[in-house]
Amino acid sequence: MRNAFFPEVPREMPTARVITITCVSGLYAEKRIPIMLGTYVSLGRGGSNGIAYPTETTGISRRHCVFYAHGSGRLFVQDQESTNGTYLDNGRMEPMKWYEIKPGHAVRVGREVFVWKT
Questions:
Q1: Domain segments of the chain: what residues?
Q2: Class of domain 2-101
Q3: Residue 113 near residue 25 (C-beta atoms within 8 A)
Q4: Which of 40, 50, 68, 96 is the most buried (most CB within 10 A)?
Q5: pTM of this prediction?
Q6: 117 Ramachandran zone, left/alpha/beta (phi>0; psi -120 to 50)
């Protein structure tokens, strides 16, 4: 199934088995969030998300976005049709479309900003 979504991603294996994103501002400022290669981490309000925000948090939907660490070592994000949008380097992402995050690029969700630091 991953090949259907990411056919252009090469099958080379990276040396690291985890990608770490860092929240640089907001509720989780300075928190490092590891994402194992080949897995997804959702961000939203409530405990069912890997990156969970309190239910009263404004600007963040129940299921706001999803990060995916591809087995090749590339990182992707998808907006899950959130109310207030997900932003990649200040540009609003199209809902349900996968975007690659390069090291140093910022993903903004409400007042939260996440960066992939290598």
A1: 2-101
A2: mainly beta
A3: yes
A4: 68
A5: 0.85
A6: beta
Q: Which two tokens stand for residue 50?
A: 């890997």
Check residue 12 and give left, alpha or beta (phi > 0: left; psi -120 to 50: alpha): beta
| Residue 56 in tokens | 């009263």
Helices (H), the chain: 2-5
What does the radius of gyration of the chain's CA atoms come to, in whole angstroms?
14
User: In 3-state terms, what secondary structure has residue 74?
Assistant: coil
7: left (phi over 0), alpha (psi -120 to 50) or beta: alpha
Q: Read off the pLDDT of residues 60-115 as tens digits, 9 standing for 90 and up.
A: 999 999 999 999 999 999 999 999 999 999 999 999 999 999 999 999 999 999 99
What are the distances in angstroms from CA 93 to CA 48, 55, 88, 99?
Answer: 23, 23, 7, 8
What the block records as the tokens of 26 is 């907001």
